[in-house]
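Dear all,

This email documents one entry for the complex benchmark we are building for the journal club exercise. For each entry we list the sequence lines for every component of the assembly. Then comes the predicted three-dimensional structure of the complex as a C-alpha cell string, followed by one or two observations. Please use this as the template for your own entries, and keep the labels exactly as they appear.
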Amino acid sequence: DGGITQSPKYLFRKEGQNVTLSCEQNLNHDAMYWYRQDPGQGLRLIYYSQIVNDFQKGDIAEGYSVSREKKESFPLTVTSAQKNPTAFYLCASSTRTGRLTFGAGSRLTVL
Amino acid sequence: QQQVKQSPQSLIVQKGGISIINCAYENTAFDYFPWYQQFPGKGPALLIAIRPDVSEKKEGRFTISFNKSAKQFSLHIMDSQPGDSATYFCAASIRTDKLIFGTGTRLQVFP
C-alpha cells in the first residue's frame, strides 16, 4: 500500500541536542511538507519542497532544517536553536491537485 | 489575508444530532477548500473538499456548504455518531500551492 512513513513515533531529546525526524513516501508525489501541531494552534508549516534539491521556508522555519536529496525522502532536523521543540510533527506529500496525504506523526518531547 | 478562521474551537453534540463547523477567509484567490479529520495520535486525513464553482458538496453524512460572496464555508455532519469524535480542520489554497489551515475544532459526540 502506498503511504507516508514517519519515524520514530516517539522521540525524547535533551536540551542542546539536534534530532532528525524521518519521512519517507512511496506515493510518487513531487511535493512534501513538514507541519508542527500544538494544542489549539492548528497545523503550522515549517518547510516544504516541491521538487528534489529544492525547498522553501514555511511560517515557522527558525530552528529547523531539511534536505530533499531524493524524491521519496524529506527528513527534518530539529536543532538546538529551536527553543520550544516539544510538539507533534506531521509530514505530508501532495499530488499536483494539492490533495495532502499525511503520515502518522512523530511526537517529540524535550526532557 | 492568508488566514483561515475556524469556529468553534470545540463542539459537543448528542448522537444523531447535526454538527456544524464554520470557516471564513479573506483571500478571494483561494480556489480549493478541503476539510481534514484527525483522530488522536494520528495524522489528518482528507474528508471532503470543494472548489468555488459549486455551493454545496455532499458525501454520505458529510456536506460542505460554500458561500462565495460571504467568503465562508462550513462542514455539516448529519446524524453525528460517537465514531465522528475527532478534530476537524478546514483549509484553503490557491491552485496547488501550500494549504493554509484553520486552528481546528474538537468534536465530541456523546451517545
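Observations: Residues 52 and 68 of chain B are 7 Å apart (CA to CA). Chain B has a mean pLDDT of 94.
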